[in-house]
Amino acid sequence: MPVSAHPIFPVALAIVEDDARVRELLREYLCHQPEFSCPIVVGSVEELWEELELSLVPRVILLDVSLPGQTGLQALPELRKRLPGTDVILQTMHDDPDRIYQALRAGATGYVIKNATSLPQYKQAILDVLAGGAALSPSVARKALLHFQPAPSQQPELLSAREQEVMQLLVDGLSEKQVAARLTLSPETVHTYVKRLYGKLQVRSRGELLARAAKGDL
Amino acid sequence: MPVSAHPIFPVALAIVEDDARVRELLREYLCHQPEFSCPIVVGSVEELWEELELSLVPRVILLDVSLPGQTGLQALPELRKRLPGTDVILQTMHDDPDRIYQALRAGATGYVIKNATSLPQYKQAILDVLAGGAALSPSVARKALLHFQPAPSQQPELLSAREQEVMQLLVDGLSEKQVAARLTLSPETVHTYVKRLYGKLQVRSRGELLARAAKGDL
DNA sequence: GGCCTTGTACCCTAATCAGGGGACAGCGCC
DNA sequence: GGCGCTGTCCCCTGATTAGGGTACAAGGCC
């Protein structure tokens, strides 16, 4: 799965950044690296679209989140659709959780905070995505992790570890029989757990249970 | 929110790693850093529990995922409950998506791949979490990002309006009979829709359907 | 005018689930 | 030494779901 971290040919980058000073800084540094070439360095999404008509498809796009005209965040879905093989690393000044979430949902491969990222770290970020990884600034990663954790809900303490285990497998779409097989239990036992879950979570059917799970934590 | 990146006192680490060589390597390097102290260096979760009784609570725990006895993954939820102020960085050889997902759900603040992480990078990872960030190896971050992206969902265009309507009510936890009542249809008709949904979404049971819906779009 | 997709409805059989019940061992609390 | 909770297993009955048909009217597409 991982692409070679040391491609033989320079990798084509696109840099989209409205602040001319930052843009030049990035160009100066990144484009003098032997690993990269920079056929596209522009100040807006609109210019990017134009350049993409003429130029080779870049392998990685460094995209500013907030731009005059169309923002990077708005352009991302379209970009992902038109250039499915291109990784997009978003860059911005702020680690706003909502934007991070939006970006990651839309398929960003990286999200870096400008003033927390040195030029060598920019380079490393690009190399990381080329190697099949993702590049998240630590503060961004932290925000992203929040989305994995179940909303502070009431159940977890009420449900025993085993019950939660069964619950999880049910949420994953397994039947009672499949859960039994997975946990090496008798189907009857699983049925007992399910009955207990219904009682504890105050539901009366599998549908309600899964609906609760979907809203409650998941 | 971020804690100072340069604490005045050495930060107490716990290292849990069963491979003696790796353990010593980490101890040698990390514990000679002026920023850290290592009151706890053990080879299993069981020993960790013992040490925690005696020692100061560590600020950061480096925890191996797979350990003899209780695994790091199993210990994580308990650890998070008993030491809510302590960050846990998991370390392992493999970037298995399931384990990553489990760990992040359980509240890990970092997840690093052993043989892709140099000692200075270990140090940086710890500093990152101390600064309120999260430390994910690039390959781990990539796996984690997959969970943000709506499952390659072809549904919206394939499902007719009526089918989506039925789908939505099922997701809300209604039975076929209830859906029928709600939409003023025959239960048989609803059943027909459900069968068509199964076909279109390539599933074979209500559970799978709801699981797909929960992850896919909803 | 055919062909396909929807929306609607029915029939059938087998599998699964819902919701009762009982049983017993282990563990912790008081 | 009980009492409660958990984990495991079993039985039963009735409701629901799974999956396979068939049917027909309406509408779109070629």
TrEMBL record, chains A, B:
All copies of domain Response regulatory, residue ranges: 12-129
Instruction: List modified residues, type 4-aspartylphosphate.
Output: 64
InterPro entries attached here?
CheY-like_superfamily (IPR011006), NreC/VraR/RcsB-like_REC (IPR058245), Sig_transdc_resp-reg_C-effctor (IPR016032), Sig_transdc_resp-reg_receiver (IPR001789), Tscrpt_reg_LuxR_C (IPR000792), WalR-like (IPR039420)
Q: Which residues form the HTH luxR-type domain?
A: 152-217
- Is the keyword DNA-binding assigned to this protein? yes
- Transmembrane segment boundaries: none
Keywords in alphabetical order: DNA-binding, Phosphoprotein
UniProt-listed Gene3D superfamilies: 3.40.50.2300
Q: What is this protein called?
A: Response regulator transcription factor
**Organism field:** Hymenobacter mellowenesis
